[in-house]
Recover the amino acids of this structure.
């Protein structure tokens, strides 16, 4: 952590996590290799140069600060409720029991379920968390009428059968509820839709979930995000960061949406798009319409701690290359480009994931 | 108009417009800021340099002509029947009455409706108009059987209820009818599909329609345009210009379609794609298959009169940059590139919007 | 053949072809202009330089070999069963009779149909064939239960009516069967989906099928290829080469799929994408995720024999340009780029279309 000059690192934790493992991680720092199952690390504003010497790898890195003067690194949890929102997940019923135990409550109906989720979000905020993370197949955020949601939930809880369509609709409904709760507690909402998980069932049986064989699908945002953006797109306390692995949506849907709704920011290229040419295409497709200030800036998303500096370094080089082109084409002045480089590498991610004022500094 | 050396400017007017405001505009010229509600200005072949001095901003601008030798600028109307073709528009019934009044007729059935539209098109042609303009959510042009169309129309007229699916099908049917009428009267047909209007209903309530919050959606052309292209794609008197805000369709659908159907031309990048990088991507994605001669050339589409020279200047710079690349790569000779630059800036738009020989010169 | 230094050329032949014409072609070589109806020539590993002199047109061409030392050119057939797999093709019933005659059998039911197809594949293998070729509207490969497939087939055979949905489902089912047979006989499976044929029925009536007016449509691969990839994606003896004219699927679907399934390779840009800028976009969109070794390398697909060297030359120039960029950006060393150029031009196509050891050398 010192060597990489990382200010903040966020783990991703199940909603039912007691955050003990997270706290242990925060205590020991520097050895995050054995993170929780399904956990990804996200780093906002991490510095990618090697520290130590004065040899700064990327021109986009603010220099002049030294390891000694950095604030203490902070490790914060991220609230990931996915398995609880997808009624057709095999372990859903068990996971609900875990949620109930973590929230120290009984979950006998939909209202108790919402209350338990709200309670766990409070615990994550108290532990310094600044965001939630949502991996859905579709970006749909259409709310159901409360009584319909309550009925579907009750049937799922009773094991009385829920159709695939009902489960999908409930997932979208719960994204809407998560957005509503974000307006209350200030957690930045991260949405990573459009990946068909476990494409090869034989590999799934051999290695378990989240071991590759996840393949993107066409992802629609204009209609799918409309309910949340209509309701909260201008809410001052709401930030929705939309990631995508379908780059075809950059100029058609995501950039125009981010251009008008203050709450929406576009996430950095992710997963299959997290390679040099795709990162460059993102800048070129999104910036003309969305501008720089509607982007999240570079946020890494890795399970490999040691890859963090390389990923930030690469992102900064790509951004610097894009900005250099704008300077050469007289579309930006050099000083504006240097400022923007710092925005993309540092200031925008900090703004996108604000820290609650009352959060403990080191968890 | 003199300073910008604009040869022709087209306003967009409702089908029921008596064109009085248009004639006033044409008379006073030079002060178009207060155009009709919903009006956009389209300029074909406008010159983007500042006139006056000899300092030509864009290398693509034909030089040597001076303001003094330009023909008198012409201001022409464009026929926009959108609200009359969408049976589910809130003001549809009122707008039908406006159409009837403008056409000096009664609209009691589908046949009278078609006749009134045909009559208004004639009035636009007489006023020097060269085009129609159509903003539909889908590019669908599937005709309905006449009796089905007549029945749906009769129910809408009687306020007896039309389903959303029927309204959508009727809109597509009417695009086909508009194409058929264009074959008769020679008006170039402009289609701008694929924008979901008024994405945020709260903003709509605050500011009214067409004030932003319009977001593109996936737009299909291969099947949607097939009925019109089957019927009129080789008609000598028919020109269909397809615009898009879904650049994913450039190489897959639009360029191949424009490459085979003589009547189809690809419109210039528009709206969210009207920015430097997207304009360049359009050239690079469409030209290899469609060639230059199946493009409309640059046609501006603005409500801000003073933006016209800047927009033409930008378009010419992007085109010149693309052509320069082809020259450097030995794919075009320099003299061919210079010729093509003039085609894109001036000759192609003039061809795409031919003036009826009998149209009055200044309206 | 000598002048172009072509090692192998593959014609495309109907499944019922007795291959007599093919054998005649192979015997006479050098005069392929009058190939069979619907035939396309595919050339793997063809050399694009003009032979004769030492003037090598493309830097990617391995030099040092001379015409005299080349192995005898081989002309091999490619198995194209399309008309037999689409139950709603007008000539389907007639074509089934042709298949029965070619296989010297009776086709009275679904089992006999499969057996006849298997028998014809054996004949193609015996004639040196290395691949099958499939042009379907959709990439769907979902197998039907055997009894459902048998029932649909029986009704089609009896002329008793098959719905469009049943015909489409049967086509997908048969793609799965073709993949299964490829695992048995080792024929590389080529899939070219996503083209709506005969867009203009009037042109179809005037000139017949496959004379232009074929337009791409959105093509989905992630779900469509899943059944075949689940079943055979790791089979050692299976190679599926997926072509596309929907470049929007490159980074979203095709590259991620090719990255995980060893059996899948991405075909070279084809048809409307077989132009300089689209070829470059393919490299830039697919390579970051799929790498070079999951590509087929350049495979030409033309009906014009004399276009072969020009097409290979162009492909090699584009590849060399892309590789040069990677060298300049320090992403590849020069010697790696040179090696990769040979892979793309020669070694990868040879690997993608392996020759059965027992195939006769000159047919």
């Amino acid at each position: 952590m010192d060597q990489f000059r990382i200010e903040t690192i966020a783990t991703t934790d199940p909603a039912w996590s007691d955050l003990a493992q997270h706290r242990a991680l925060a205590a020991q720092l520097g050895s995050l290799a054995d993170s929780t199952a399904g956990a990804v690390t996200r780093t906002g504003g991490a510095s990618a140069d090697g520290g130590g010497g004065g040899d700064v790898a990327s021109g986009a890195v603010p220099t002049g600060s030294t390891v000694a003067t950095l604030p203490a690194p902070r490790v914060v949890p991220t609230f990931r409720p996915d398995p609880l929102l997808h009624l057709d997940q095999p372990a859903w019923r068990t996971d609900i029991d875990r949620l109930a135990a973590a929230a120290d409550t009984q979950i006998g109906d939909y209202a108790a379920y919402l209350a338990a989720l709200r309670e766990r979000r409070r615990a994550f905020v108290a532990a310094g968390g600044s965001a939630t993370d949502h991996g859905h197949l579709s970006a749909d955020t259409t709310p159901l009428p409360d009584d319909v949601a309550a009925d579907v939930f009750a049937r799922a809880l009773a094991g009385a059968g829920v159709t695939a369509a009902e489960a999908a609709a409930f997932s979208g409904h719960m994204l809407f509820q998560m957005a509503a709760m974000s307006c209350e507690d200030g957690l930045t909402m991260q949405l990573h839709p459009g990946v068909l998980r476990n494409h090869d069932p034989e590999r799934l049986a051999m290695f378990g979930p989240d071991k590759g064989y996840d393949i993107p699908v066409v992802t629609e945002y204009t209609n799918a995000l409309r309910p949340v953006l209509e309701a909260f797109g201008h809410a001052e306390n709401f930030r929705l960061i939309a990631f995508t692995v379908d780059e075809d949506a950059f100029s058609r849907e995501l950039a125009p949406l981010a251009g008008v709704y203050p709450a929406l920011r576009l996430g950095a290229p992710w997963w299959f798009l997290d390679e040099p040419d795709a990162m460059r295409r993102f800048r070129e497709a999104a910036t003309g319409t969305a501008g720089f200030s509607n982007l999240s800036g570079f946020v890494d998303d890795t399970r490999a701690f040691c890859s963090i500096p390389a990923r930030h370094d690469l992102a900064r080089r790509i951004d610097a290359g894009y900005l250099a082109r704008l300077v050469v084409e007289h579309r930006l002045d050099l000083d504006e480009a240097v400022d923007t480089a710092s925005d993309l590498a540092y200031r925008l991610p900090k703004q996108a994931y604000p820290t609650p004022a009352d959060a403990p500094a080191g968890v």
Notes: The interface with chain C takes residues 196, 199-202, 212-213, 215-218, 245-248, 272-273, 275-278 of chain A (CB under 8 Å). Residues 164-185 of chain A form the longest helix (22 residues).
